[in-house]
Amino acid sequence: MKIRKLDWDVENRELEVVAALMPCLDNFWSKKIDHIQLATIAKKFGTTAEFIIAEDGELGCLGCAAYYRNNQETKIAFLSIIVTRKGFESKGIGTSLLDAVERDCALNGFVSIQLEVATENVAAIKFYKKRKYQLMGCGKQGYLSYSKSLQE
Description:
alpha+beta
């Protein structure tokens, strides 16, 4: 497995984001994502987010992560999504992606990462807690906010 950060100067960056997200579509927490919504998400991630892909030469994308390093004042990054391809859960892909996100944020001077998880997404809550993310409180309706310091 190779972890690759999608460069900003890639022509058709949004199409690469779509290509990475498509194999993972069945594993999104919200099962209501259709191809139109996927295009909207890909446009947002393709134009504003850092994007990391876990890939296998034979199978292609095994998982991906999108995050934002745009708060230069507080130096707090925001993890928007980590998703793996169905059938590849609990194989270290999510951990490898999260490690890459944390490393990139720390290398760019960010002090912490925040994220939100749906209260019903027990697997994700367990995943982040195991990786030392601390509960900050309730975010948007039905979501919990977590944070991790990168200065440990």
